[in-house]
Design brief:
Radius of gyration: 26 Å
Number of strands: 21
Shape: globular
Mean pLDDT: 80
Strand content: 15-25%
Distance between the termini: 58 Å
Structural class: alpha+beta
Number of helices: 10
């Protein structure tokens, strides 16, 4: 009997993954631990290894499908085993759920391996032993959904829903077990089009997204691409940040003259040590010192338990622009590292991000984030909070500006700092004092020596 390959839980917060690319075809021989599929999850792309040796019998999901963790994604037959799924097995095996296969609207039935098959302790099997969090909350799935709470629908229906701007969760399904078919989506879209816009409400009570219509006469002058991969993950993250934080902005300016001077002095020593010294390591150290004085900004809100979580560790996310989109790798335990160590790690993570080689652990666990907009010349921005962090600091370009010092006009190297913070967790006065503390340290960067480890 072919064995199921499950989509494993690659990190604690990951609940689903998008199938980007199959690396093997049906009928191909596979070795154990051989990469078989690329999956996009939580802003990183990972290659999943095969837990078994044998032949790929069936792909249970297609490229572009978004599937929950613990979902079967492929069937692998052992060496010498018949490389086809017996018809009897499909008809009589315990059915977990009907899974979509093609955009024609057809359906496939998934089945579990025979109960007498020996237990396999692979990462996939181990992940499947523990019931998913969603399954613990209810023993019976809601009608029209699988055991993970995801709506049952054929891929063609999901694709059409995306093209029409329809939330698949709203569409009543007419297929087996309430599965949504293509005609269900069309019917729902037609009915919605006849409904006055003022009466339409999206899930959660929010207004529906604005509809897009191609202007008459311009139908052949547009190019459409599915919202997939990293861009889809970014869109979801920004939507969550917008909906579930009360984002407020505080702005101040930093006289970076002494910081610029110190960096110029230390650059040759950093280069001799084999690393490039930017301003970020100094800013990281200053931020950590300020976070220790104002722990409200090193916090998160736990929705399920209605608790504010104050963190006594300092993991700073840093926004990195790549060809695929923005990613936020995380520098762990910043308080325990020197400026030179931070410089080397910042550079290594940025290179991994631009090469698309970040691992799940590289983007997990941030407690506060920093976005260096100044590196591309921006004077000012309103950063979006990297949830579940409480705040994000925007660092902008350093410019020569005339300022008053001791009653005299002087040319100084000035920089704007913008702090976006969740007002549910941080009061405006706390945010302002935090930013003042960061500025106090960086304007006399020798103070960083007092906290060196």
């Amino acid at each position: 009997m072919p064995k199921e390959v499950l989509l494993p839980e690659l990190a604690e917060s990951i609940v689903e993954g998008e199938i980007l690319k199959w690396l093997v075809e049906e009928g191909d021989p596979i070795k154990k631990d051989q990469p078989i599929v690329e999956v996009m999850t939580d802003k990183v792309t990972v290659e999943l290894p095969s837990p078994y040796e044998g032949v790929l019998v069936k792909k249970l999901v297609q490229e572009g499908d978004v599937v929950p963790i613990h979902t079967p994604i492929a069937l692998i037959a052992e060496p010498g085993e018949e490389g086809a799924v017996p018809a009897a097995a499909v008809a009589t095996a315990g059915v977990e759920e009907a899974a979509p296969v093609a955009e024609s609207g057809e359906e496939r039935v998934l089945f579990k391996p025979d109960a007498t098959e020996p237990e396999v302790k692979s990462p996939f099997a181990v992940a499947a032993e523990a019931p998913p969090r969603a399954a613990v909350a209810a023993t019976e799935p809601k009608a029209g959904t699988n055991r993970f709470g995801r709506v049952l629908a054929v891929p063609a229906a999901r694709k059409l829903a995306r093209e029409l701007g329809v939330a698949i969760e709203e569409v009543p399904g007419s297929g087996p077990a309430g599965r949504v078919r293509v005609e269900d989506v069309r019917r729902y879209a037609e009915e919605r089009a006849r409904t006055p816009a003022a009466l339409a409400v999206a899930p959660g009570g929010f207004p529906p997204p604005y509809p897009y219509r191609t202007p008459a006469g311009y139908q052949g002058l547009e190019e459409r691409k599915p919202l997939r991969g990293l861009r889809r993950v970014i869109a979801q993250g920004l939507w969550q940040s917008h909906l579930y934080t009360v984002r407020t902005l505080n702005v101040d300016e930093l006289d970076a003259t002494e910081l610029v001077r110190l960096r110029e002095v230390l650059k040759p020593e950093a280069e001799a040590a084999g690393t490039k010294l930017s301003y970020l390591p100094f800013i990281f150290k200053a931020v950590v010192q300020a976070l220790k004085k104002f722990p409200q900004l090193n916090a998160s809100f736990d929705w399920e338990r209605e608790e504010i979580v104050y963190k006594k560790y300092y993991n700073l996310g840093m926004a990195v622009a790549t060809d695929q989109g923005l990613v936020v790798p995380v520098v762990k335990d910043v308080d325990k590292k020197t400026v030179l160590e931070l410089a080397a790690e910042v550079r290594a993570l940025a290179e991994k991000a631009r090469a698309g080689k970040l691992a799940p652990e590289d983007v997990a666990g941030s407690t506060f984030s920093i976005t260096n907009i100044g590196s591309i010349g921006a004077v000012f921005s309103f950063p979006i909070i990297n949830v579940p962090d409480a705040a994000i600091l925007g660092v902008h370009s350093i410019q020569d500006r005339p300022v008053v010092r001791d009653g005299q006009i002087a040319i100084r190297k000035m920089m704007y700092l913008s702090l976006s913070f969740d007002h549910r967790l941080v009061d405006g006065a706390e945010a302002a004092m935090f930013l003042k503390e960061v500025i106090r340290i960086l304007e006399a960067p020798g103070r960083l020596l007092l906290e060196m480890r």
